Amino acid sequence: MKLDVPFFYGKADATTFFDWIVTIEDYFDWYTRSDIERVRFAKMKLVGPARKFWQTVASHLERMCQPPITQWEAMKNRLNEKYLPSFHKAYLIDQMFDLRPSISSVSDYINSFVCPIISIVLRN
């Protein structure tokens, strides 16, 4: 079985970013990689504005005479800062408390509750 991770284009949509992070984390669960390999792999999956953002982060660290990011958690935190706005956590919590049963399926209702919780956990 071969798993792949889609490219992340830096779309300003927290859900798209969240889905990408979940997919890449699943990939890392399947394939054992060192932190530096995880960072390199994730960097290869950044394209367009996301790639430009990461190049800016790397350039800034270099100008400040700081070491490059080689830990996956540190990279994920930087990406979270950019693609999960600070108000997103509060928004998800508000959504969670505003959930009401509707005519949709039980599965849809559960997903609308669980996905925001997972997003909050990943953000922290």
Report on this model:
- It is a single chain.
- By secondary structure, this protein is mainly alpha-helical.
- It folds into two domains: 77 residues, no CATH class; 40 residues, no CATH class.
- Helices cover 68% and strands 0% of the residues.
- It is built from six helices and no strands.
- Helix 5 runs antiparallel to helix 6.
- It is globular, with a radius of gyration of 16 Å.
- The chain starts with 13 loop residues before the first helix and ends with a helix.
The parts where pLDDT drops under 50 for at least 5 residues are none
Give the tally of β-strands.
0
| SS class | mainly alpha
* β-sheet strand percentage: under 5%
Overall pLDDT: 82
Can you give the helix content as a percent range? 55-70%
H and E string: HHHHHH
Query: What's the story with the biggest beta sheet?
Result: none
Question: How many structurally independent domains?
Answer: 2
Number of continuous helical runs: 6
Looking at the structure, what is the overall shape?
Answer: globular
Q: Roughly how many Å apart are the termini? A: 32 Å
Radius of gyration: 16 Å
